[in-house]
Amino acid sequence: MLGEFYLWIKAVHIMAVISWMAGLFYLPRLFVYHVEATEGPAMAKVFGVMEEKLLRVIMNPAMIVAWVTGLMMVSIPGLIAWDAIWPWAKFAGLIGMTWFHMWCARRRRVFAAGENSLTGRNYRMMNEVPTVLMVVIVLSVIVKF
Q: How many domains does the chain have?
């Protein structure tokens, strides 16, 4: 039955992944601005609200929809060549993206508690993680090595 809706499921999956990735790119950048804010506690509060809403309203739902639609597609018989390397590389990239999402959520809670110990440079470096994971995932799915 899922096979009949494959293109719809795939379309929703792609939209969810785009939304999730946008958040994964933007949240660490907000952390950079937050840690480097010199305008005082009022600006830190604004960044805190932005971070929390981005995570709760956009990133969490997008991640869930991406996972659900991805699992729906994987359950369609014959769609995935499990003897190839690419589905496993994509899965490893997906686990990495989920870990990064959880790391960002944890860092947001640390900021909310006023206990951040990382620098803007640390967050800039971590901001490269989703890019590397995106490259692995896209090449895996498109090139199918």
A: 1
